[in-house]
Design brief:
Blueprint: E1 2-3, E2 10-11, E3 25-26, E4 36-37, E5 40-48, E6 52-58, E7 65-71, H1 73-76, H2 79-95, E8 103-108, E9 114-119, E10 124-125, H3 126-133, H4 138-157, E11 160-161, E12 170-172, E13 178-180, E14 187-188, E15 203-206, H5 213-216, H6 223-239, H7 249-258, H8 273-282, H9 294-304, E16 319-322, E17 352-355, H10 367-380, H11 384-389, H12 425-429, E18 444-447, H13 502-505, H14 521-535, E19 540-549, E20 565-570, H15 572-579, E21 589-598, E22 601-609, H16 624-633, E23 643-648, E24 656-661, E25 665-670
Antiparallel strand pairs: 1-2, 1-3, 4-5, 5-6, 6-7, 7-9, 8-9, 10-12, 11-14, 12-13, 15-17, 16-18, 19-20, 19-23, 20-21, 21-22, 23-24, 24-25
Length: 673
């Protein structure tokens, strides 16, 4: 049989589709072509990788399109991999966010292979956008990355850490909007059904160019690892290159662990100083020196970009036209470029997943032992990684229509070959022997919009190793403090986090003499209220959330990423101003004030919110300890247990407590003490 790659219709003989003029593909090349999966027919292959294949599916009646991700045959026999495959669907459905690719369905083929049906996207991966355009318009980049950070905030709120955020996993529409893809190695909280094997301590999961220092060492990670990756992506989008380049995995890991990134403004002089601060704060080596949350980082980024000129807000999308316009494609075939070299995700052999032993802490006195562990971990990742690392991306993508809507993910030995089937637009449209395809069939015309704002790119001298991607040779003097800016080379013991402008510094933690291992949430409410009313005299409490709480009423905020205390306040005056917007308009405003406490310190800052449905509440009548007593009386485990609690009200209802010992006990408890 032969299948039209446009509509998925099957025909007995080779030739061209009578409806769309596309060359028919032979199902001998891929037996899934033309097969019905639910209401959709598989029309063509979009991309292939170690974990499986991604196809375009077409509804034969209404013509709607989806992307269908099918797990490889060998992977279908691995229960841990199947669990991880379906965890992706579970993770996305937990979040339900407009900037995260939507999962529509999941099931199993008759031969036992599981599949996921996802929305089909138009556009290109951010990696292809950067490869094509180089340094991006700063306003357009800010818009896309605030959308990415908003999506991450929703994921983190749902207990999901992406752990493999990179430009290839951010899809950019032609209008510049962003979608986050591939939660295939996302870490879910155990109570949400996460598989323990791929997320255990000592596993290296991620893409080395975008892995945080703690992830590089195989240590447990939380939401702040995603913020480090977001900082790397911002650096690359703003400058057109990555902050760290190396000829080996060992050197790359060492740089992420030990070396400061070059100042982005040394590569992009028109980058506002406040935006540079946001990037460098996200790239702090220690997680507690980064932003408190994705939402805080998004707010700081938007604030830093506030004074950009109008032409900087040009959308960063690439317009791709032709028969393959919305097709994510497999990894591009390199070809020569004119000068600029862009390092490739393939240069790091896609995604690494290798077991490793628990890593030691990063201490100077133990650096040799740390690097012995890192080298052992790098060796476990496979010898092929070193060879792949040395392959520069010397070319722009051959087809800028994008990669798989959901990346086909990590390579595994024994999976189906990645080059099987019609994997490019050309392959999909090649006609039968002796026949010529119809005019313009399957062609891709890239409409390039040169950035109007682009500054002249400073010439870079090759480093000693000849790589133009190596760090620049610029080394300002230690006292280089122009206009109050910190020097690029900071004195010992200082970091860029110590030199932030006020609009960015408010999102970083401040030490206030709090013992995070013995925190009193009830007593701190008075402090939080004073902070909120210092910002807004009319501030009113709307919600309290606290984790890591023992039956004593004290909390240990060092037990994990969910053990925080968050006090939320609303300003009625600010809400009233937002309420003046017409119905149907965006009614969000900075009407909520966060006081956020975790192991790293205290942050207090306003947050943009739609405040229509927020209900002010009085201070709780029950103490945390009294709530615990009620929960134990109701059956909660009282020995060696910590709880997560929330206190708020819905409209027309009295405030109540939500009490949870995750995986063991959940209940609503009246605040009637």
């Amino acid at each position: 049989m032969h299948v039209c790659p446009e509509c998925g219709a099957s025909y007995p003989n080779p030739g061209y589709c009578p409806q769309h003029g596309r060359a028919l593909a032979d199902t001998n090349d891929d037996p899934l072509l033309g097969v019905a999966i639910g209401p959709y027919r598989i029309a063509r292959l979009l991309g292939a990788g170690g974990m499986g294949r991604v196809y375009v599916g077409v509804h034969p009646t209404i013509g709607s399109r989806v992307a269908i991700k099918v797990l490889a045959r060998d992977g279908a026999a691995d229960r841990h991999l199947v669990k991880r495959f379906f965890d992706e669907a579970r993770a996305v459905n937990l979040i339900r966010h407009e900037n995260i690719v939507n999962i529509l369905d999941l099931d199993t083929l008759p031969d036992g292979r599981p599949y996921i049906v996802m929305e089909h996207l138009d556009g290109a991966p951010l990696a292809a956008v950067i490869a094509e355009r180089g340094p991006l318009p700063l306003g357009g980049l800010t818009r896309a990355m605030t959308e990415v950070l908003d999506a991450l905030a929703a994921a983190h709120d749902a207990g999901v850490v992406h752990r493999d955020l990179k430009p290839d996993n951010i899809f950019i529409s032609p209008s510049g909007r962003a979608k986050v893809l591939d939660f295939g190695i996302a870490k879910l909280r155990p109570e949400l059904g996460a598989a323990s094997d791929p997320t255990r301590t000592g596993s290296l999961l991620g893409t080395p160019h975008y892995m945080s220092p703690e992830q590089t060492l195989g240590k447990p990670v939380d939401a702040r690892a995603d913020l480090y990756a977001a900082g790397l992506i911002l650096f690359e989008g703003a400058t057109g290159r990555r902050p760290f380049a190396a000829d080996s995995l060992f050197d790359l890991m060492r740089k992420h662990l030990e070396e400061a990134p070059p100042p982005p403004r040394s590569l992009r002089p028109d980058l506002p100083a406040a935006m540079e601060d946001v990037i460098l704060c996200a790239l702090q080596k220690q997680p507690d020196r980064r932003f408190a949350s994705a939402r805080a980082m998004a707010t700081a980024l938007a604030e830093a970009a506030r004074d950009l000129p109008a032409d900087a807000w040009e959308p960063i999308g690439i317009e791709v036209r032709g028969a393959a316009a919305s097709l994510p494609s497999p990894p591009p075939t390199p070809r020569g470029t004119t000068g600029r070299k862009v390092a490739s995700d393939e240069a790091m052999a896609a995604t690494v997943a290798a077991p490793a032993e628990t890593r030691p802490e990063v201490r100077r006195a133990r650096r040799a032992w740390t690097w012995a562990a890192a080298l052992a971990l790098a060796s476990a990742a496979g010898a092929g990684l070193y060879a792949a690392l040395r392959q520069p991306r010397d070319a722009r993508p051959a087809a800028l229509a994008g990669r798989a809507v959901a990346d086909a993910a990590p390579a595994r030995a024994g999976d189906e070959p990645a080059d099987a089937g019609p994997t490019t637009a050309a392959a999909a449209t090649s006609g039968p022997a002796g026949g010529a395809p119809p005019a313009d069939a399957g062609t891709v015309r890239v409409v390039r919009r040169p950035p109007r704002h682009s500054p002249a790119k400073p010439a870079r001298k090759p480093a000693a190793n000849g790589s133009p991607d190596a760090e620049p040779a610029r080394k300002p003097a230690a006292n280089d403090r122009t206009a109050g800016r910190p020097p690029a080379t900071l004195p010992a013991g200082e970091s860029h986090a110590d030199h932030l402008p006020p609009q960015v510094a408010q999102y970083l933690p401040k030490r206030e003499g709090i013992d995070p291992t013995d925190f009193d949430p009830n007593a701190y409410l008075r402090v939080a209220t004073r902070k909120a009313r210092k910002h807004w005299p009319d501030a009113e409490l709307v919600r309290i959330d606290v984790g890591g709480v023992y039956p004593t009423g004290r909390a240990d905020l060092t037990l994990g990423s969910s053990t925080i205390a968050l006090y939320r306040f609303i300003s009625p005056a600010e809400r009233a101003r937002a309420g003046d917007a017409p119905l149907g308009a965006d009614r969000r405003s900075k009407c909520v004030f966060y006081v956020f406490v975790d192991a790293s310190g205290v942050r207090a800052y306003p947050v943009e919110w739609n405040c229509d449905d927020l209900v002010p509440v009085p201070p709780p009548r029950c103490s945390i300890r009294q709530v615990w007593k009620k929960a134990i009386a109701g059956g909660a485990p009282g020995d060696n247990a910590v709880a997560q609690m929330g206190y708020w009200a819905t409209r027309g209802q009295r405030p109540r407590w939500y009490f949870s010992v995750p995986g063991h006990y959940n209940a609503w408890i009246d605040d009637d003490c």
